Amino acid sequence: MINPTEQPLSAYTQIRNVLPPGEFFTVEQGKEFSTLEIAYETYGELNEKRDNAILLLHALSGDAHVKSHGPDDLMGWWEYFVGPGAAIDTDRFFVICSNVIGGCRGSLGPASIDPQTGKPYGLKFPVITIQDMVRAQRLLVNSLGIEKLYAVVGGSMGGMQALEWSLTFPDLVEKVVPIATTARLSSQSMAFDVVGRHAIMSDPLFNDGNYYDSKDTRISGLSLARMIAHITYLSEDSMNYKFGRKLQKSDRLKFNFDTEFQVESYLHYQGQKFVSRFDANSYLYITKAMSYFDLHSRANDDLAKVFANARSQFFIVTYLSDWLFPPEQGREIVNAIRNNGLHVSYVNIPMMFGHDSFLLDEEYLPQVVKEFLYEGRDDI
């Protein structure tokens, strides 16, 4: 079997140690690293003023490969959104996208080698936070010789990172675009992740996270976790539109437990595809980081106070059919920012595809994001 952590990266993915010599990276939990390898890709050119850099921030299952570099390259996870003339125009902007720490696509994570043992960290890797991810990204940006970002843009977990950038480094980013995100997970959202993690850790092949030397590293519990999560990414309308109660191969019910309905087949496919490219341990760490993300708790549940020191311009985007991170969660972020007298724009897009809409919206999202990025910048 193929180890998902050994799947080939794009030929354009670079990996570098972003720590200056003699320095350490310390995560919130307290663990120190003397080496911090980050996988990243860049698109476009940095201008002479070095003020046209945009950092794209991926969702849970994404990586550094946001856009294909040519016809022979792998497709990226936000293909339509980035490129010449696109919303993130690579003829105008220098675009950076990196794999988060804790991930399994080149950046430091549980599959990385522990120098003390010579084996993968597994569950000995420290629990990480969204802020840890952002602080690592800042070191990457520094290593590229960029002092300030023009914008950070991200959806879902990437939106959490975008919000964190505006709070942890308020003077280092001009524009912030959090899309289909939240200031904290609801208990319902957390519950889906809890069940997913339990499915992984209950799998006999999981072996307390020490499965990297096994012949088969494709943990079936990860497939189940992905199937559960994928349901939350869709809306009832989109599922009815795609599948309804249509049968997969027959026009008659079999009255057994085989895969009969199209929705069953689709979820099985999504689960199996995910297992072949993602690491089960990374799924545990990243979903846990999302659970720990709670901006409300930083100021006794007064979200406005959390943004008191923010300096960026914000554009908050929600989707009407998103029941994982519903529009009211986006609006509470808008109100908190507005209460501090900051520049904030907001749009709620009426698409039917649920939380995944931001990855599918090739019409409205590119238009409104492009307008926001160009606002006030005639020189770009």
Helices and strands, in order, run as EEEEEEEEEEHEHEHHHHHHEHEHH
Indicate the proportion of strand residues: 15-25%
By CATH, the topology of the largest domain is Rossmann fold
Number of domain modules: 2
What does this structure look like?
- The chain has helices spanning 130-143, 157-168, 187-201, 220-233, 236-242, 262-275, 280-292, 303-306, 327-338, 357-360, 364-374; strands at residues 14-17, 25-26, 32-33, 37-43, 53-57, 82-83, 88-89, 94-98, 113-114, 119-120, 149-155, 173-179, 313-319, 344-349.
- It has 380 residues and is an alpha/beta fold.
- It folds into two domains: 4-184 and 294-374, 3-Layer(aba) Sandwich (Rossmann fold), CATH 3.40.50.1820; 190-287, Rna Polymerase Sigma Factor, Chain: A (Orthogonal Bundle), CATH 1.10.1740.
- The strands form four sheets. It has an eight-stranded mixed beta sheet with strand order 1-4-8-5-11-12-13-14, sandwiched between helices. A two-stranded antiparallel sheet has the order 2-3.
Question: Could you list some keywords that capture this structure?
Answer:
2 domains; Rossmann fold; alpha/beta; 32% helix; 380 residues; 11 helices; 8-stranded mixed β-sheet; Rna Polymerase Sigma Factor, Chain: A; 16% strand
Briefly characterize the structure.
The chain has eleven helices and 14 strands.
Would you spell out the secondary-structure blueprint of this structure?
Layout: E1 14-17, E2 25-26, E3 32-33, E4 37-43, E5 53-57, E6 82-83, E7 88-89, E8 94-98, E9 113-114, E10 119-120, H1 130-143, E11 149-155, H2 157-168, E12 173-179, H3 187-201, H4 220-233, H5 236-242, H6 262-275, H7 280-292, H8 303-306, E13 313-319, H9 327-338, E14 344-349, H10 357-360, H11 364-374
Parallel strand pairs: 5-8, 5-11, 6-7, 11-12, 12-13, 13-14
Antiparallel strand pairs: 1-4, 2-3, 4-8, 9-10
